[in-house]
Structure formats: structure tokens, C-alpha cells
Amino acid sequence: MYSEDILSDCDIPAGQLRGSQMPLRIKAVGRSDRGLVRKGNEDFLHLDDANHLYLVCDGMGGHQAGEVASMTAADTIGRAFSRFSAEIRGDVSLKLDRTLPDRGDLLVKAIRLANRAIQAKAKENSDLTGMGTTVVAAAVEADIMSIAHVGDSRIYRLNERMLEPLTTDHSWITEVQNTQNISREEASSFIGKNIITRALGVRPTVDVDCRVVKIRAGEIYLLCTDGLCGFADDDEIFRVADKYRTDLKELVDNLIQMANDRGGSDNVTVAALQILEVLPSPLPELEPITLQSEPHSSLEIEDLWMHKLTQAVATEPESQAAPGKPSRLMLISLFIAFAVIAVLIVYLARPQ
DSSP secondary structure string, 142-169? Predict the structure, then answer.
């Protein structure tokens, strides 16, 4: 679930709402690719099956600072969901000025904490000054999906005849289109078209856009960084996604291949979610809103939570290393073992 080429494909068992045991099942497949030009990957992919949390981040900043920013954001948000969800939701000092579903409420608070965590790391290390990241995240419960985003990474719903955008970019080019009533094609020729107007980590507080949508069994949702949507329009993405909608791995792989076929000049991350089974509920949809940045009076509380999340990382036991290439010591040991066996075989085979 991290920044290099990684695949996650699994069903989510037994989501619960107010004690119900009916299942919420989602198939999630994701992959992040560094592209063909850049030396590193500043994108970050996080698919949390147990907590119904899915997000992608696109970092920015020199000296690999973008990679640090995107990883910090994903880790902070992920840990808020996996370790402290009830406590963070219940902290009245973090109360939002809008009522959201439980997981939407937690998602916005976690994104604010991620913003503080990135700022803190930049203050600790001058090489990280100015780093930041986009984030687009979906948290699912019952039959609703809470979506929150900052920056120009996107989430779409794959309909039968079109790709439906569920987020609006926080970018200069989008503002120009909206204020001057010009097409994307016209705006694409403008200098500075890739400038984003909002990101995590660049200011002490952050505005977060969020919405809540009803989900239905069979639907497919796509999350991506601008390594995809910056090089292909929605119609082009739809044609590829529609062709491979019956195989999420092929869908993700072919969207990334399309981005690389167009030069691969940026990192690209794509995640596809297929809703398999939901729990019907009376929870309503919520049209897109902007939650204005939190008051400065809450920053001290957010920093306390940020430090608590950081301490949780320090106290976690080291995870088992993922299967990979054998170590050099292992290879040497195997060579010696084979050599000894070969000598024994030759010796025993000699005439007595």
C-alpha cells in the first residue's frame, strides 16, 4: 500500500453499523508507478481493508520531501482510523462546524492532523521545508461513502456511459475555467496550469472539501493522482475503464499504461473499488461542501493528537518483512552449503 508498484486485491468482511452484523464487502485494487522519467515516486497509495479507508496522495517538494509528505499524510490518516478512531471522534475540542457521518467526521479530522504532522516534520528538518501533498480519500460505512480531498487528486464513479467526477480540483487552471468560462483545452495552454491552490502541509491550517454519496452493489469507483488525469481527459479514462470494468487489475494496469504511453513524465497512482455488498441505511447524501480551516485555538489540541499518533508508531512492534529478494548473507550461506554437499558427493563416489 505504499509508493512503489503495489497491488492490493481483497474483500472487506463484516462492516458494522450500530451493532448490525450484515456485511459491507468491497473489492479494492491499487497500484502506484513512478513513470518513465522521474527517479523516485512521490505518490503514496493506502488501501485499508479492515477500516474501509482508501486514499491516494501526490507529494511535492525537493530532496525527496514530496515522498515524505505523502507518506506522512497517509500514515497519519491511516493510524487515526486504525488506532484512535473513537477517541478522535469523541474529542469535543476537534468538533467540526458541520454534522457528518461518523467516518466522514473522522476523515476530515484525520486530514487536519496529517496537515499538522507534515508541518511538524518540515520544522524539524530544513531539507523538508515547503513540502506538501495532495490527498483524496474515501471512507465507507453502511451504504454511504464519505469523500474528502485537498489538491488535484481525484475520485470518480464509473457509470454505464460516462465517468462521473466526484471531486473538483483545487488548482489554478480550474479556477481560471470557473471564473473566465473557458474550456479545459483553452486553459491547458496557459502557463502555470499545473499549479495547485491547496495542499496539505503548506499552511498551519487547511480547508477540506467533503461530500457524502450513496453507494450501490456493483458500482466501481476510481481514485487517481494527476499523473493520470493530468495526461488524459475524462472521456479517455472512461473508455479504458469501461473496457476492463470486469477485471479491476487489468483496469488499473491499463490506465497506468496509458499514462506511461503518453511519456510517463509523472508518477501515477490508480485505485479501483468495486462495491460488492452494502448495508442499507437511512444515512443521507451530502452535496459537496468546503469545511473552512480550523480555528487557531484548536491547533494545540491537534498537535497533541499528532504527537500521540507519532508515539503510536514508535511503540508498534516491527512488522515482518515482506517476501522479497534473498539477502546477500543468505545467498552466501546457500552457496557454501551447496559446495559442501558437492564435495561430499564427489568424495563418496570415489572408488574405495
Answer: TTEEEEEEESS-EEEEE-SSSEEE----
